[in-house]
Amino acid sequence: MRLLSTKLLAGTIAGSLLVAAAAAQADRSEWPDNFTVGTASQGGTYFVYGSGWANLVANELGISGGGEVTGGPNQNLALVHTGDLALGLTTMGPAAEALAGNSPLAPGVAMDNVCALFPMYETPFSITALADSGITSISEIPDGARIGFGPSASTSDTYFPAILEELGVDFDRRNGGWTDLGGQLQDGLLDVIAFAAGIPIPAVSQLEVQTDVNIIEFTEEEQAQVLEAFPVAPFQIPASTYETLEEDARAVSMWNFAIAGCDLPESFVYEVTKVTMENNDRMQEVHRSAVTSVPENIDKNTVLPFHPGAVRWYEENGYEVPEERKLN
């Protein structure tokens, strides 16, 4: 009788395992065969972060995936919305504009097939000039100054010109990759570079090695004025970020979030979120800015609905997702 009971128990356990395995296989039946993460230009924080994140997810889930060079947040929103990319990286400002149909890439198109996955990091807005320019504050930027705002249609190019206009700066607008703009600043072809990028910015670190620079902070009044006018948050660039800084520098910032097509399978996005949120140490190995890529920061998304798969992971692990941030 005992032998029979043992056999029955073993059979029950084996059956349960087969059912679980079958369920897991069924869950994967609708998964994409591969995935691509939209990042930005090579050498920037987005490219490093996004490519490393894609590799982590691909390795953990046993599915082919990788990062792709794009034009940055605005293009990533458009490509995820249309389904040309499964995943991408964006900032909250461009996300709000895209959702409202005000994307510069597709005016009038409400990009409502874009869902948030998890918080990444804050992108500070900072200004750099050569020390011998004599520019030590925003108010000292001369009329007609040649200012590099980064790649066209990037977060920096979308918001920093408007921010400086709000502060009364008159300028000649220039675009390009950060490394190229750094070289132009050093060669005297630019007067200022207005960066919106994860810190430390490689181009600024390189400039510090080669020449003396001024990293220009916002005054308290300028910061308050910009906070009132734009979807940004107060930020302090730690003095330890750059050799040039002797103390923290006042700035503003915009949060970055990973995004996914809202129509992706819930089980797939759940597993992507699980891998990411439960391996922050490995995410920090990808890029040190991932120290803030933690579920406690999901409240920094005030724009996009979270994907149902991401919501399930957060709620299973004790994190509350506001009803207004859930997909209707």
Note down, in words, how this protein is organized.
It is a single chain. Strands 1, 2, 3, 4, 5, 6, 7, 8, 9 and 10 form a 10-stranded mixed sheet that branches. The chain has 2 domains: 34-122 and 256-325, D-Maltodextrin-Binding Protein, domain 2; 123-254, Periplasmic binding protein-like II (D-Maltodextrin-Binding Protein, domain 2). The model is unreliable at 1-26 (pLDDT under 50). It is an alpha/beta fold. α2 links the parallel β1 and β2. The chain has helices at residues 2-28, 45-61, 73-82, 92-99, 155-166, 178-186, 202-210, 220-229, 266-277, 280-286, 308-316, and strands spanning 34-38, 64-68, 87-91, 114-130, 145-148, 171-174, 192-196, 213-216, 233-237, 249-261. The relative contact order is 0.16. It is globular and about 60 Å long. Keywords: Signal. This is C4-dicarboxylate ABC transporter substrate-binding protein. Residues 1-26 form the signal peptide.
Q: Provide a count of the helices.
A: 11
CATH class of the largest domain: Alpha Beta
Main sheet?
10 strands, mixed
CATH topology of the largest domain: D-Maltodextrin-Binding Protein, domain 2
CATH architecture of the largest domain: 3-Layer(aba) Sandwich
Q: Give the % helix.
A: 25-40%
| Number of DSSP-assigned strands | 10
| H-E order | HEHEHEHEEHEHEHEHEEHHH
Annotated CATH homologous superfamily of the largest domain: Periplasmic binding protein-like II
Unreliable stretches: 1-26
Q: What's the number of domains? A: 2
The proportion of strand residues reads: 15-25%
Mean pLDDT: 90
First and last CA, distance: 55 Å
Secondary-structure class: alpha/beta
- The general outline is globular
| CA-based gyration radius | 23 Å
